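Sample intake — 5-oxoprolinase subunit A
Collected from: Rhizobium mesoamericanum STM3625
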Amino acid sequence: MASIDLNSDLGESFGPWHMGDDAAMLQIVTSANIACGFHAGDPAGILTVLREAARRGVAVGAHVGYRDLVGFGRRNMDPSSAELIGDTIYQIGALQGLARAAGTSVRYVKPHGALYNTIAQDARQAADVITGIKAVDASLVLMALAGAPIVAQAREAGLTVVCEAFADRAYNADGSLVSRRLPGSVIHDPAVVAERMLRMVIEGRVIAIDGSDVALEAHSICIHGDTPAAVVIARTLRETLEARGVEPKSFIDVRHG
């Protein structure tokens, strides 16, 4: 049976400011990218999500980002290497402590928002994040954009890399994501999302925003947890995959480690 990981960005609520339905998403996804407090999330809320992930056997990853609470980590920044390495180490370490208290452990790292998009192409910032990850634990898996230069860069540096596709984001013809500033960048129709990701799993291809075909080799699918239809999209995608014999399964066996 074919399998695919389903991941989502969770733990992003901040005090009374509620973001997404983490409990519902944790019933659907197989891996959870947990905010580390820099772009979103507060310790009490993050701990609650980690406990639920542990209870459900969902793999946990550190969703590290720029130090940008106001901009939700989606503003481009140019920190020095010392800053970015330190921020990466700090965020992973914070989540590791909370995860330990929740009875689980951090197994991978997925950068968030503007940092994710920047390091996909920017070799210097990518190297800083890679250095930060290795300084904490070189066995941590890096989740990165399928087809981006960082994939080879991180593997050459000795990290295991899992490539991902985005269920609800539009692609450019070169395999990059369409900017959120442009119309059509986010896909809201659950049926459309499910069918395009089913094709990606079976054929390794998606339709770009200009109508061309884009080849993608991905072992994880991201469903953003902060969109209004996130739970419906995630559930429809999972049901569609299972109906076609594709098993939703984390790339990490959470039973061993």
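Post-analysis note: Residues 2-248 form a domain with the TIM Barrel fold (CATH 3.20.20.370).
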